[in-house]
Amino acid sequence: MRLLDDGYLKSDDPSVPVIEPLASLFLELNRQQRDFALGQEALGARLNRARLAVYDTPRLAPDATSSLRLADGRVDGYEYNGTRAPAYTTFYGLYDHYVSYLRAPDPDEAWDLPERWQTPPENFDRTTPLNLASTNDIAGGNSGSPLLNRDLEVVGVVFDSNIQALPNTFLYRSRAARTISVDARGILEALEDIYEADRLIGEITGSMRATVEADAGDDGTASE
């Protein structure tokens, strides 16, 4: 503390006049965040006790412990800021966001794309779904989970939720809460036309395995 008070706050450093009025606000914010975290932890403990009282221990799998979690839902948009967020976004939305913020007056609001995305090939289909919203219940540790359709085909990869889903930690609601996944069609479109990753596409779709098996000899080795 002496180093802070005598060595820094009493120095001629130009940051001192800025730090002095902000320090008390920063410390107060930290205190509020700590109190909020403690309150949330207490609510979580009460919720878990209620779950145990209703369902009993053997029927409850803990979160984020590599235990299997299954949640069903449907792909659906939701009401948002006086309009409706669509169930699917496309690559058109990505480019719209890029162009809209390209000349933002505030550099911190600028939104950039890698060069190869700025000039995609002509066969790149911007109408391909990129992300999708669904009513599946999501929790911490679900990011990276596969999204399956009714035929158990992988159609996406879960990576986030919208902000409306945050209260679902305590009470599941599906009116506007959504799980957000990257659409498998968007992944394949990007790999094929932007990155030209044909071998990776073959591994994902199984076409490479089928080709190797068709060319394999009787002893199981691939023939040229």
List keywords for this structure.
224 residues; 5-stranded antiparallel sheet; two-stranded antiparallel ribbon; 7 strands; 14% strand; extended; disordered C terminus
Sheet bearing the most strands, described?
Answer: 5 strands, antiparallel
Rounded Rg: 25 Å
Helix content: 40-55%
Distance between the termini: 74 Å
The mean pLDDT is 84
Give the tally of β-strands: 7
Structural class by helix and strand composition: alpha+beta
Q: Which strand order do you get reading across the main beta sheet?
A: 3-4-7-6-5
Order of helices and strands: HHEEEHHEEEEHHH
Structure explained in plain terms:
The radius of gyration is 25 Å and the shape is extended. It is 40% helix and 14% strand. The protein is built from 7 helices and 7 strands; from the N terminus they run H-H-E-E-E-H-H-E-E-E-E-H-H-H. The longest helix has 40 residues, at 16-55. Residues 220-224 have low confidence and may be disordered. The strands form 2 sheets. A 5-stranded antiparallel beta sheet has the order 3-4-7-6-5. Strand 1 and strand 2 (83-85) form a beta hairpin. It has 2 domains: 2-58; 78-210, no CATH class. It is an alpha+beta fold and 224 residues long.
Question: Secondary-structure map with pairings?
Answer:
Blueprint: H1 2-9, H2 16-55, E1 78-80, E2 83-85, E3 88-90, H3 91-100, H4 115-118, E4 129-134, E5 146-148, E6 154-161, E7 179-183, H5 184-194, H6 198-205, H7 207-215
Antiparallel strand pairs: 1-2, 3-4, 4-7, 5-6, 6-7
